[in-house]
């Protein structure tokens, strides 16, 4: 499938999706969001893929929703069109792990997109923010809900009300990102993380993703019960037999996603 606003490459069980609108700092327009949702769906359905790596350019992961595309819209347009609602639901439906590699600007919808990913590796030059307030709007892809869950109310309010940017170091301290690495090493380090995930059992990785995400949607008791059932069900897989046999035989496991 030929895309215009992203590139996709599958190598060694990792699908690397790169946002590719360099002239607009990867601003999220309708074309890009549609292509991204489609590429993620294809990666999820592709048996050769065990992990997705989502990245942008050195200058920007994404500088937010495309202001040029939004500026003239009225309430009826964004309400009836449900701007990016279907795309966000499609991204949330992806069951394989998604690693985000973030360099440069990660703002507005870009920051919200990073928060939809499972692991976020940031270069030490990354800048995170929810500057929608400076445009007379608020976040619309879940940022008012996911940012406080990640960083707490006080810092989330600071970000959403002032529109200031956070450095990568602050973002790591605040638990918005998983790890910070030197910007020059970001591509290699993030690829290594995705590769390590891709070496694991996909069945267990999908179960882990589903279980951790459930923590944000349910009570502790229900979440723990959900985890126990998934934990127990993994004992029905060949990968569990292989993983434990490999440990006992002191060799690397060969997972077959069965
Ligand atoms: C459209 C954008 C853009 C955006 C940058 N560009 N961000 N175009 N939408 N969000 C374009 C600029 O217009 C410019 O193109 C080119 O990218 C380079 O940007 P500059 O501003 O010249 O670069 P710089 O001076 O380095 O400043 C970088 C920046 C700034 C700080 C990131 O571009 C910026 O503040 N961007 C907007 C960030 C923002 O407010 N995001 C939130 C959007 S609302 P031209 O052609 O002019 O040279 C949102 C809502 C999500 O995300 C919810 C949706 C439902």
What's the Cα radius of gyration? 19 Å
Distance between the termini: 28 Å
CATH topology assignment of the largest domain = 2-enoyl-CoA Hydratase, Chain A, domain 1
The name of the CATH superfamily of the largest domain reads 2-enoyl-CoA Hydratase, Chain A, domain 1
CATH class of the largest domain: Alpha Beta
Average predicted local confidence, pLDDT: 98
Q: In the CATH hierarchy, what is the architecture of the largest domain at level 2?
A: Alpha-Beta Complex
Order of helices and strands: EEHEEHHHEEHEEHHEHEHHHH
**Main sheet characteristics:** 6 strands, mixed
Secondary structure category? alpha/beta
* Low-confidence region ranges: none
**In percent, how helical is the residue content?**
40-55%
Family: Belongs to the enoyl-CoA hydratase/isomerase family.
Protein name: Short chain enoyl-CoA hydratase
Keywords: Lyase
GO biological process, one term: fatty acid beta-oxidation
How would you describe what is shown here?
With 258 residues, this protein is an alpha/beta fold. It has 2 domains: 6-199, Alpha-Beta Complex (2-enoyl-CoA Hydratase, Chain A, domain 1), CATH 3.90.226.10; 202-249, Lyase 2-enoyl-coa Hydratase, Chain  A, domain 2 (Orthogonal Bundle). Helices cover 47% and strands 16% of the residues. It contains 12 helices and 10 strands. The strands form 2 sheets. The chain has a 6-stranded mixed sheet, with helices on both faces. The longest helix has 16 residues, at 30-45. It is globular. The two termini are 28 Å apart. The mean pLDDT is 98. The site of hexanoyl-coenzyme A has 21 residues, from helix 2 and strand 6. Hexanoyl-coenzyme A is lined by residues 24-25, 27, 63-68, 83-84, 105, 107-109, 131-132, 135, 139-141. Belongs to the enoyl-CoA hydratase/isomerase family. InterPro entries: ClpP/crotonase-like_dom_sf, Enoyl-CoA_hyd/isom_CS, Enoyl-CoA_hydra/iso, Enoyl-CoA_hydra_C. Keywords: Lyase. This is Short chain enoyl-CoA hydratase.
